[in-house]
Amino acid sequence: MKANESDKLAQSDPMWEAAQAIKGCVRAIRKACGKLNPEDCEPGTIEYEAVTMEFLDDCIRSLGGDPDAEEDDDCFGVGATG
Question: Does any domain span residue 51?
Answer without folding.
Answer: yes
